Amino acid sequence: MDKDRMKSYRSFLKDSIRKTIDFSQTDQNRGIAPPPVEKPYAKEGKRIDLLKWDEWGDIGKMDLKTAIKNRESRRSYSDKSLSLKELSFLLWATQGIRENLGPGHARRTVPSAGCRHALETYLFVFNVETLEPGIYRYLPVEHQLLFEFAEDHLDKKLIEATFGQSFAGESAVTFVWTAIPYRMEWRYDIDSHKVIAIEAGHVCQNLYLAGEAIDAGICAIAAYDQEKMDALLRVDGADEISVYIACVGKN
Ligand SMILES: Cc1cc2nc3c(=O)[nH]c(=O)nc-3n(C[C@H](O)[C@H](O)[C@H](O)COP(=O)(O)O)c2cc1C
Known about the structure:
The protein is an alpha+beta fold. It has a domain at about 50-210: NADH Oxidase, CATH 3.40.109.10. It has seven helices and nine strands, in the order αβααβββββαβααβαβ. It has helices at about 5-10, 65-70, 85-95, 155-160, 180-190, 195-215, 225-235; strands spanning about 45-50, 95-100, 105-110, 120-125, 135-140, 145-150, 175-180, 215-220, 240-250. The strands form two sheets. A seven-stranded antiparallel sheet has the order 1-6-5-4-7-9-8, with helices on both faces. A two-stranded antiparallel ribbon has the order 2-3. Helix 2 (about 65-70) crosses helix 6, helix 3 (about 85-95) runs antiparallel to helix 6 (about 195-215) and helix 4 packs antiparallel against helix 7. It starts with a helix and ends with a strand. The relative contact order is 0.19. The structure holds flavin mononucleotide. Flavin mononucleotide binds near residues 72, 75, 165 and 220.
């Protein structure tokens, strides 16, 4: 082990960097308008309405104690498809907006440093009722799905981009969260990146617990080929970067 290299990477876990920042000079404090709460999209794109809170019936009624007790990582899924209702619930649980506070600010079902919410949610849809397979993006403000594109052999490409983790392509749907770092940097400058990683953990934990409540297995994935995943999602890997993945399939 190269001790110096290790030491420098360990510094990512610290918050020492905060003391080096002149916060009066952040974009927020210089009066620059906040970036939008969700990545803009072409209005003529195909959008699918998701079901809302009062349309879910019994979905999500499992008691929290049971959900926490039973949570585990599951990498093997049945052929049962996920309903749009169930997917709506999972998306709400992970990134749903509970209060819109005007341009650039919204409170969600998960916490985020400074309420900056730097993540976007992409879905590799393989087996969801009424949805054609392909890549979609969640639009939290509209509580809709945006159809991004379809491609041949997406399952194989996803498996390849996760270093051969086959369950990634055998799921009903695989979530990939990207970060748009500027949303956090606008407020916290170079003290943004650790909290973005923490935020992703909150999101995925909600997915695990919500998955329990709909009898679905979840497995987080952090081992993936960065460049292949960014290319697969058609994001630039600089201003938008894939950071975390989780597979979902019915038990
Ligand atoms: C940050 C993070 C990254 C993970 N990455 C992977 C992964 O790439 N592949 C995988 O099969 N499991 C992955 N897991 C799941 C862990 O292997 C799993 O949580 C751990 O073995 C404990 O099992 P449990 O979740 O069932 O309690 C990851 C979990 C976390 C929290």
